[in-house]
Here is the input.
Amino acid sequence: MPGERRGQVGWESDNPYYEGKKHREPTVCERCGLIYRDGHWQWAEEAPPGADRAICPACRREIDRYPGGYVLLQGTYWQGRWQEILNLVKNQEEEARRTRPLHRILWIEPKDGEVEIATTTPHLARRLGKAIQAAHKGELSIHQAEGEPLVRLVWRRD
Ligand SMILES: [Zn+2]
Here is the structure.
């Protein structure tokens, strides 16, 4: 429920997006084909016979449009370097996904002169924000409420 305060443990066990949720092994994501094996979701050529079926946490977030992290681009600088920044963001996502396939970008949406990038995991949002700052300077601030997994990064350059 929105606004409800939850403890860390309760949040994890009730949360359908929680990456550490246990499944029977092997389980296949019937949407993207990832396999749950050795305690985590991973890439696989094909589903092993007899695998259980489920929806992985990243696909669940894609279906529900429920991000685990946001990066907000502010200021005017990004508009002149948009293709460059977009390429950087996509390359970072690709690299992250290679080893952690639940790290995905949900959407990249310009709104009111800003750009909102939503990610499936807080980890990927942090990675994108830091990569943008490393390449393009500017100011980066990280906002996360205590005990809440959702992270919001604001990068600004005028
Ligand atoms: Zn999936």
User: Anything to note?
Assistant: Strands lie at 27-29, 35-37, 40-42, 52-54, 69-74, 105-111, 114-119, 139-143, 151-156. The first strand starts at residue 27 and ends at 29.
